[in-house]
Amino acid sequence: MIFKIDTPDLTQERAGNTGTPGVWHFDSGKPGPSVLISALIHGNELCGAWALKDLLASGLKPENGKLTLAFCNLAAFDRFDPLAHDTSRFADEDLNRVWTEQKLAEPSTLERQRAAELLPWVKQADRLLDLHSMHEPSPPLLVTGILQRNIDVGLRLGVPRHLVVDAGHKDGTRMRDYAQFGDPEGQALALLVECGFHGDPSSVRIAKQTTARFLLESGVVSAGQLPAEWQERDGQDIAQQVLQVTEPVVAKSKNLTFSSPWQGMECIEHAGTTIGHDDGVPIVTPYDNCVLVMPSLRQLVPGVTVVRFARQVH
Ligand SMILES: [Zn+2]
């Protein structure tokens, strides 16, 4: 896949205005939610960096509540090479798998050190939108986690079409599931949006549109404050689908192959259909009308999720 997005110059943005590199915080001084929009949790996912860079350039400030913009894994981003974009997902370990008290207490990697810097900004937020992109060309999707309040806010946004309800990964906890965001009794809202392939210019548009909807839904800004093109509705307003992930397929070996070049969101009609092999063992769909969510072998090592099985529930 050809990378068609320019690498943003973040020389100014990485200074931040908080003392934490890459973190910008604006307080309206009025009541309202504290919204955190995060980008570059993965260093090669540029759509969010462009969205936040352009948002800062627009001079946007909250009318109510607080707004924090965070460029997260700058160390990985600094290694970004469009010709080898997979290699700058992280420096030492995946920054979206370190969000447990135990891992945060052991600052043994660049990512855990960075998570410790970001932690006060994550903790003070009660609404999070985490901007990501994908290894493969695939329709954009919202990753809501399993809490109903997050599914509900995803449906209130109205975009993108696919909402994926999943419990996360076996190899670590995501920022969007950390502390208040994963508390079943709490009220904090968290969404992660996968905006399409890392190098596809449409991912930047999706990141901006989702950010605009999230900010408007939260009430920290009003429509007149946001660039008009961020509020365009380019055919995405078709009925949303809620897909419940029932199980991840976790690689047991490095010898894992797919039987077709799955792109994601394929619906496999019959239970028992072989979609690939792991060290010779067939990987089969567990039920009829099984949807394949984010299939990818690009980060293949034992223990990594290579695809998730989901069924449509809404
Ligand atoms: Zn990502």
UniProtKB/TrEMBL annotation:
Sequence ranges assigned to domain Succinylglutamate desuccinylase/Aspartoacylase catalytic in this UniProt record: 31-135
- Cited Pfam families: AstE_AspA_cat
- Would you name any one GO CC term? cytosol
The cofactors it requires, by name, are: Zn(2+)
* Keyword terms, alphabetized: Hydrolase, Metal-binding, Zinc
Q: Where is the signal peptide?
A: none
Which InterPro entries did the record assign?
Answer: AspA/AstE_fam, AstE_AspA_cat
One GO molecular-function entry:
hydrolase activity, acting on ester bonds
Q: Give the region (Disordered) as residue ranges.
A: 1-25
Q: Which SUPFAM superfamilies match?
A: Zn-dependent exopeptidases
Q: Which PANTHER family match?
A: ASPARTOACYLASE, SUCCINYLGLUTAMATE DESUCCINYLASE
* Protein known as: Succinylglutamate desuccinylase
